[in-house]
């Protein structure tokens, strides 16, 4: 690997590494607007200008267009570089309206950040600013303010290279250059929210988050999108127990820097009116629902079935398995594939999977390990008195057909919760630590962002309580310990724990037969 | 615990108190004579007469209006951010007809929590909030009425005139219960 020198630090990076990335590895932050790690290099903002040290002396070059090669040396701390950055900032802000008080980007705006770091000049503006079109409704998720734009063309490249729709374009010339849509068109794709994220300034902002909250109040927690089997990495932005938005979290192996709009909208489910917040027995609220469920399980004897949840975490499914094995040795397991009644059944070649369950691969893994897990047909034919269901809306999935008495551990109201005689509230993924396995077989960790609402508890904790009532607790009160016992028992998870999974997750070990 | 001893034992003339009482009366009489000769009273007849406050006195907050009648505040959230007492609550909304786009749907200041530091005035990028009313009688019969609303603060003084500040213009309907809206005369 070639050695490059950034200021006084020498660092070895793979050949062809972009110098902005190489500098980041060396601990030097190079300011930039138009460069994005998952888009092509445009080199039009000129903010990443630095000095390249050559045998003929120092030459100013843009770092985003430089690739690491042996002997390359750049400096980012000279007076010349500082002067250039200051001038670039001045040019970028010549026609900027300084809408900061009403702009949703302020607080996470590169113009604000870099002005404080590299600008700090006295305004020389004598000419009136060029005014452009403000507050344009260009799509279901995006508001465009052309005046705030710095013409970095990230959104244009996103449309060309990621979604392939090519909808946003820079038009006109000189200081009248303006970003906009073709006449009569609107953004039609399902990745609009990313435009607001990649826009380094406030030109493209999210309609959903518009004026909701100032970003500096929000705290961010590394979470997972549980909208489909892709398992995109997200940043959950919340304040005082309220979730305001999901942002994509970079994971080059799963979702790069993107998430889809249906997934982004799922933050509304955390505090939605559909949440189950109280335990119910036979339709009326009950404070002793767990004890009642234990009584009914005992009464059902051998005719109890357990349905593994493809929307529930690995920990929750493990708790269900351990609970069943400890207390009902004769119990049968099932899993019902398909999507819930309220799932938005969209899919594409990018991120959206047709399987809208976050943990289908995880349930598959545990089903292999347990062995003899019945499918939909087996469930239809089985002679059962009580069926314990974890999160999945099996009534919609089975689409009719007689079912035994249901006990439902779920987070939101659906056809199953309506039919179930016992309903125990469990948390939304944003309210618990848990792990999920995505469609690639990647085990990923989701972190708890907010406190559970109402009486909801994480499914593994709720099942621990039920196990205690039944006489033998599964030992799944804490997520860390639960995952450790799971990783020790299941060979394909060997060696994994929360620390190893980290922020980007780990791929499952191949099945034993394949490994041989 | 023993009581502290008096650090001085009284002399005979002191313990008789006659001389000491006469001394005190002499001091009183000296003030009577001084005030009769030179009528510079330090006491004012509040609330009929009021002390002129200095120009920089920080009184109750008011919200200002633009010349076109719209509220100046754009709900940028700078004041709740900077407020050390955490007493300002703003709910932002979008106004489709206004070029300012954003406006405060509600703007409440909990005067029981406010410490009158004036940071909100300093932080405001739009000169929308000021504390130049010189009002210091901020009182109510219950805690809810101590929360000043947007409508109350706009009407506290004539929001159109930034130079207002000599007379009260309190809309009785918007004033909190118990607030005496009678306009007192300033000296």
Topology:
The complex is a heterodimer of chains A (516) and B (187).
Chain A: E1 3-6, E2 9-12, H1 19-25, E3 49-54, E4 57-62, E5 73-75, H2 79-92, H3 110-119, E6 136-137, E7 142-144, H4 154-161, E8 168-171, E9 178-181, H5 193-198, E10 204-206, E11 219-224, E12 233-239, E13 242-248, H6 261-264, E14 280-281, E15 284-285, H7 289-300, E16 304-307, H8 314-327, E17 332-334, H9 360-370, H10 376-381, E18 386-390, H11 394-398, E19 405-410, H12 415-419, E20 422-425, E21 434-437, E22 442-446, H13 459-470, H14 479-489, H15 498-501, E23 506-507, H16 512-515
Helix pairs in contact in A: 2-3, 7-13, 8-9, 8-13, 8-14
Chain B: H1 12-16, H2 18-37, E1 62-63, H3 78-82, E2 88-94, E3 102-110, H4 119-123, E4 129-130, E5 147-148, H5 150-155
Antiparallel strand pairs in B: 1-4, 2-3, 3-5
Short recap of the structure:
The complex is a heterodimer of chains A (516) and B (187). Chain A contains 16 helices and 23 strands.
What do we call the CATH topology of the domain at 62-155 in chain B? Alpha-Beta Plaits
Average of per-residue pLDDT values of chain B: 81
* Main sheet attributes: strand count, strand direction, barrel closure of chain A: 7 strands, mixed
Task: Count every beta strand of chain A, where a strand is a DSSP E run of 2 or more residues.
Answer: 23
Please give the radius of gyration of chain A in angstroms: 27 Å
Helicity of chain B, in percent?
A: 10-25%
Strand order of the largest sheet of chain A: 15-14-20-19-18-16-17
| Count of helix runs of chain B | 5
Spatially, the strands of the biggest sheet of chain B line up as 2-3-5
CATH fold assignment of the largest domain in chain A: Rossmann fold
| β-sheet strand percentage of chain A | 15-25%
